[in-house]
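Hello support,

Our group uses your service weekly, and this is the first time we've seen a run hang past the timeout. The protein is Spermidine synthase. I'm not sure whether the cause is the sequence or the server load. Input pasted verbatim:
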Amino acid sequence: MSTSRKTALRPAPLPEVNFSDYGDVRTLHLGTEWVQGSMLLNAPFDIELDYVQRMMAWLLFVPPGSVAKRHAMQLGLGAAALTKFSRKKLRMCTTAIEINPQVVSACRFWFKLPPDDERLNIVIGDAALKIQQAEWAGTVDALQVDLYDQDAAAPVLDSEDFYADCRRLLTEEGCMTVNLFGEDSSYPQSVAKISAAFGADAVWAFRPTREGNTVVLAQRTPSRPARAELLERADAIQTRWGLPAPKWLKVFKPIEA
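Update from on-call engineer: The timeout came from a worker crash unrelated to the input. Re-ran successfully.
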């Protein structure tokens, strides 16, 4: 009688992490020419890329004075621009989940990511699994999702179930922002999955950047702030933190508008 034995599948090897400098900008790479994040060498805690700045659009939906009391979470560390900005500039409690330990080490050595402390927690692991942990349910005010592999062809996690798990992380006033980019990705399909998980009336979107990044925002609790309120908050965001929020309002609207 013959017997068979199941063998465990080996996980795909993680890509090599490196960086390059061009002028005053340092960029992170995962074994390819694709830029996975960047940093201004003379301003390491600012956000250099336009689309990454747009990932902060959740600030339009909360009073500026309440920001430091909130919790930010990033799925995918990249060059740690969002993580550093949230902790240093916004003074928020900040959690980042990153599957590749080499990315964390690279950010600490090359991209000025500080060590963990009472306001910073870097978690190494699979975001799809980590966000299902009950300890984080209903605790995240700003969830920023930017999950791409070394080929940057499509989001690594992009299912309705995944977005439903993201929604469960959020507080009642919480928002998720997602970077949608890639040759093989389908923006309408991704938006449909986000809308199914959050409700279409909770979803806003930017126009694509010149590089092809489209940032989509989804609210835990749908709201439609008056234009005057958005303008006031955009001015406050620009004054306090140097983000070009007034320009956002020219290219940002609800998908059902």
